[in-house]
Amino acid sequence: MTLLGVVLAGGRSRRFGSDKAAALLDARSLLEHAVASLTPHVREIVVAGRSDPRWCSVDDAPQPGLGPLGGICGALRHARVRGHAAILCVPCDMPRLPPGLLALLAHANGAAYTAQAPVIARWPVTELDRLEEHMAADGDRALTRWARSIGAQAIAWPEPLANINRPADLAALS
């Protein structure tokens, strides 16, 4: 079973004040940190919601501006075409993910997400049609609500997961 690695990077970075994915931590961009966290677990990586010449980019679906579900939907479409069984997602603004967490998700059966940060998840390609139906039916973009509706497993991670929303958050990790 092959996994497509997906970096969700389509946010507007309003609270950060500049392009968060390009912000540097330890001389690497947050986007580069996200790609590095996925690399041991997947054969191919795409960046959802933004164009970057270093990696394959996929558009949010069915259109931009739908938050993480739009990125996940676009990535699932890409994964289906490329023959992957599932996607393993991380956001671009959580640069210090524990490798054990991603390994746990990579080997999960079915859909699974991190309870503290549902954008860190494994979504089977078989859920694409249900996601498209969910988004078309009522426009609900709450990731955890959709995850619960498909019976995805919520995995509680015992350690805090650092999330960068503001420049002060990045400074605290430096």
Structural summary, described in words:
The chain is α/β, with parallel strands linked by helices. The chain has one domain: Spore Coat Polysaccharide Biosynthesis Protein SpsA, Chain A. It has six helices and nine strands; from the N terminus they run βββαββαβαββααβα. A seven-stranded mixed sheet has the order 5-4-1-6-8-7-9, with helices on both faces. A two-stranded antiparallel sheet has the order 2-3. The mean pLDDT is 92. Keywords: Cytoplasm, GTP-binding, Magnesium, Metal-binding, Molybdenum cofactor biosynthesis, Nucleotide-binding, Nucleotidyltransferase, Transferase.
Task: Note poorly predicted spans.
Answer: none
Name given to the CATH homologous superfamily = Spore Coat Polysaccharide Biosynthesis Protein SpsA, Chain A
Count of separate structural domains: 1
Beta-strand percentage range:
15-25%
Work out the helicity level.
25-40%
What's the number of helices?
6
CATH-defined fold name? Spore Coat Polysaccharide Biosynthesis Protein SpsA, Chain A
Largest sheet: 7 strands, mixed
Q: Largest sheet, order of strands side by side?
A: 5-4-1-6-8-7-9
What overall geometry do the principal axes of the alpha carbons give?
globular
Question: Count of DSSP E strands?
Answer: 9
CATH architecture title: Alpha-Beta Complex
- Reading off the top of the CATH hierarchy, the class is best stated as Alpha Beta
Q: Overall mean pLDDT score?
A: 92
End-to-end CA span: 37 Å
Radius of gyration: 15 Å
- Structure class: alpha/beta
Order of helices and strands: EEEHEEHEHEEHHEH
